[in-house]
Every structure is written in C-alpha cells, then in structure tokens.
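hiii so um. not sure if this is the right channel but i have a protein structure encoded as tokens and i wanna go backwards to a sequence. like what aa goes where. can anyone help
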C-alpha cells in the first residue's frame, strides 16, 4: 500500500516542505549576523572598562601595556561589528528575508555597538583619564559621550521611521533616498572613533599633562561634531547599489579584494583613512552644493 501512495504528487509535497524549511532557515541568517554584532559591542564595552580599570595602577608599568591591548581589542571589535552590520542587511535584501522584527533587532544592536560602546571607549581611553576627576572638563566629557549616544539613538529612530514610511512624513521633510542616508550613519561615527583608538591605542593619560589635555580637548570636539552630523540633514552615500548588477560586480570585486588586503596589511592607516574620507565626503558635497547654487540664486 505504501508503494501505491508514493508518486509524483508526494514527491512534490516533500519538495515544497523542504523549500519552506530552507526559507525559514534563511530568515535566521541575518539575525545571526545581528547577534554577532551585539556580541562585538558587548566585548568592546567590557574591554574598554577593563582597560580603564588597569589605568588605576599608574601611567607607567604593566598596567598601561595591558590597558593598551584592551583598548585596541575594543576598537577592533567595533570594526568587526561594522562588517557584521553591513552583511546582515545585504544578506536580508539578497535573500528577501527582511522582516519588521529583524529591523528592530538590528536597531537595538546598533544602539549598543555603535552608541554605547564607542562612547565608553573614547571616555576610558581618552578624556576620562586625561582630565582630573570632578573637573569641569571631566564633566564635559561625560556630557559629550552621553550626547553622542542620544544623537545616535535619534539617528536610528529617524532611519526606522523613514524606512517604514517611504513617502514624505511631513511638510518640508525630505523623502527617502535609497542611494543616500540622511545624516551621518551611526556605524560610520563609531567607526571613526574606533579607528582613532586603533591607530594609537596607548591611552592619552600616558602622554603627559600638556599633551593629554590637548588631545583630550580635540577628542571631545570630534565627539561633539560627530553627534551633530548624525542628526543633521547632510546626505551620505549608502553604497546599497554597489555591485548590484552583474557587470558592476566584476568591476567591484577587485576593488574589494584590494581594500581587504590593504586593511589586513596596514589596518591602522587604511581604516582611519577610509572612515575619515567617508565622514568628510558628505560635508564636502554639501559645501560644494551650497557654493554652486548660491551664485545662481543671487
């Protein structure tokens, strides 16, 4: 009887069930990269706290060397998180497994990894030890790290609202453009801070009072500028269409391979140059557009 019931129809139903199982498995793949993103953010926070704890032994000795390693590991973790964050969105779009739950899960991960982690890292590595405890500059460092986190969270909230409502939200608001982001993306802001720490992982407190104060002040200014850029209306390229077509993929792949090899060989210089160029290109394009349209209006 079993052999009589088996036939093309049964095989068809089994194939359909296998395809559905494979489809369900694909839905888990982007979330796995998002979970890895959260793991890197958690690691970065713990490494930064451990490094700051080791600085209590004094500006010299084994404690500082161990703290330097922890700060560098924290910056590397944020870099890996940027890669995971890029892959989870790409994979979700390629496999057509984008879900509302995945979007919210990704945003929560970004708040931790690209909001809290870099804010803690620059405080522990930079102005947290450069300025005396309880001083006005020390309190200002607390405030700026907090504002970086708040502006990053607002940037993510605005992105989610625009993603769910692709049309104009209100009078005078900009429409969603898939080729560009409105405001500096929070991974880029976090990436610049992490790249600076990776470039010079030795904590600022070890440079002496004068240089530690100078570098700490510059770092606080940079954190303030990045926070403002995240909530600004300056447009930044999204690169979502990069390598989308078959012909463009052939052209892009050698470029990706070359950049990957350069990062592997000269990560301290290449990563800082890449992220800094991305952060500046939006400002340069905005200024160029402003000066280009101003004579015409006059």
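sure thing!! here u go:
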């Amino acid at each position: 009887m079993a052999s009589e019931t088996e036939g093309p129809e049964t095989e068809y139903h089994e194939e359909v069930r296998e395809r559905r199982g494979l489809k369900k498995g694909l839905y888990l793949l982007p979330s796995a990269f998002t979970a890895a993103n959260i793991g890197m953010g958690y690691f970065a926070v713990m490494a930064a706290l451990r490094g700051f704890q080791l600085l209590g032994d004094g500006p010299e000795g084994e404690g500082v060397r161990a703290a330097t390693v922890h700060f560098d590991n924290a910056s590397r973790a944020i870099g890996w998180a940027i890669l995971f964050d890029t892959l989870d969105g790409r994979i979700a779009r390629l496999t057509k497994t984008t879900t509302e739950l995945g979007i919210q899960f990704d945003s929560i991960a970004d708040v931790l990894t690209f909001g809290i982690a870099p804010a803690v890292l620059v405080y522990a590595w930079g102005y947290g030890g450069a300025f005396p405890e309880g001083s006005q500059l020390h309190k200002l460092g607390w405030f700026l790290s907090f504002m970086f986190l708040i502006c990053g969270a607002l940037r993510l909230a605005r992105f989610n609202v625009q993603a769910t409502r692709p049309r104009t939200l209100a009078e005078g608001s900009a429409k969603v453009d898939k080729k560009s982001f409105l405001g500096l993306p929070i991974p880029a802001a976090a990436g610049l801070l992490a790249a600076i720490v990776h470039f010079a992982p030795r904590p600022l407190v070890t440079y002496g009072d004068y240089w530690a104060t100078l570098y700490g002040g510059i770092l606080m200014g940079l954190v303030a500028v990045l926070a403002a850029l995240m909530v600004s209306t300056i447009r930044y390229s999204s690169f979502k269409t990069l390598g989308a077509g078959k012909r463009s993929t052939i052209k892009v792949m050698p470029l990706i391979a070359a950049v990957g090899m350069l990062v592997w060989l000269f990560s301290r210089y290449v990563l800082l140059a890449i992220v800094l160029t991305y952060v500046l290109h939006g400002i340069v394009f905005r200024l160029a557009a402003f000066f280009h349209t101003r004579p015409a209006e006059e």
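oh and The CA atoms of residues 26 and 95 lie 7 Å apart.
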